[in-house]
Structure to design on (237 residues):
C-alpha cells in the first residue's frame, strides 16, 4: 500500500468520524418515527428514535475500520480527540447564543432550537467516552484471540455491545436527566425514554449487521491491517 493511499485513508476515516459525530449532536433533538410490519416489546408497531441515530452509528463504523487498519492505540487517540471536539462544538454554539443579536426575535428562536442541544451534547459526551473506548477495547480483545481472521465477529460484537451501552446512557441523560437538571427543554416521560432506547438500539444493531461488508471493503481497499508492534501501533505514516 502506497504512503499516499495510507495517508488519504487515515485522514478520510478521521474526517468521517468527526463529521458524523458533530452532525449527531446537531440532529439528535428531532425525534423520528418509523412504522414496523410487526409489533415489538415497549415500542409496539412504531419505533421512535433520535435523529442522530444514523450519524452516530457511522462513528462506530469509522472507528472499527480505523482500529483494524491502524491499531488500538491509534483508534483510542481518534476517539478521545473526538471527545474533546464535543467541548469545542458546545463552546462555539453557546458563544453564538450569548453574542449580541441584530434581531432579538430571531435570536430567541435560535436559542430555543440550539440551547436544548446542550442536553444532547452532555448525554453524548458521557455515552461517547464510555462506549467508544469500550468498542475499541472489545474489538482488539477479539482480534487478539482470533488474529486477522473473523473481522466480521469483532465488528459485530464490539459495535453491538458498545451501542447498547451508548444508547442507554445517551437517551437517559439527554432526554430525562439533563432537562430536569439544566432546565433546557422538556424532559420526556419514562415510557418515551424506554421507547427511544429500544428504537435506537434496534436501528444501531441493524446497521452493525449491514455495515460489516463495508468494513471489509474499506479495509481491503486500503490494503488491509497495517498494525505492527502489537496494540501500540500508531496510524500509518
Amino acid at each position: 500500500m502506497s504512503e499516499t493511499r495510507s495517508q488519504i485513508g487515515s485522514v478520510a476515516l478521521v474526517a468521517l468520524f468527526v463529521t458524523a459525530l458533530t452532525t449527531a449532536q446537531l440532529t439528535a433533538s428531532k425525534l423520528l418515527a418509523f412504522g414496523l410490519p410487526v409489533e415489538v416489546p415497549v415500542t409496539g408497531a412504531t419505533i421512535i428514535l433520535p435523529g442522530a441515530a444514523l450519524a452516530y452509528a457511522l462513528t462506530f463504523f469509522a472507528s472499527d475500520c480505523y482500529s483494524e487498519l491502524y491499531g488500538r492505540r491509534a483508534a483510542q487517540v481518534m476517539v478521545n480527540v473526538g471527545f474533546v471536539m464535543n467541548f469545542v462544538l458546545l463552546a462555539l454554539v453557546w458563544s453564538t447564543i450569548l453574542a449580541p443579536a441584530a434581531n432579538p426575535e430571531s435570536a430567541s428562536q435560535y436559542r430555543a432550537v440550539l440551547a436544548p442541544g446542550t442536553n444532547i451534547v452532555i448525554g453524548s459526551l458521557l455515552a461517547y467516552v464510555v462506549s467508544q473506548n469500550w468498542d475499541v477495547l472489545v474489538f482488539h480483545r477479539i482480534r487478539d484471540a482470533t488474529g486477522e481472521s473473523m473481522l466480521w465477529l469483532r465488528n459485530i460484537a464490539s459495535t453491538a455491545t458498545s451501542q447498547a451501552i451508548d444508547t442507554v446512557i445517551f437517551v437517559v441523560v439527554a432526554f430525562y436527566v439533563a432537562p430536569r437538571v439544566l432546565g433546557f427543554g422538556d424532559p420526556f416521560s419514562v415510557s418515551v425514554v424506554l421507547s427511544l432506547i429500544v428504537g435506537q438500539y434496534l436501528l444501531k444493531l441493524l446497521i452493525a449487521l449491514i455495515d460489516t461488508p463495508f468494513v471489509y471493503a474499506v479495509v481491503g481497499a486500503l490494503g488491509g491491517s497495517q498494525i505492527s508492534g502489537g496494540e501500540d501501533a500508531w496510524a500509518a505514516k
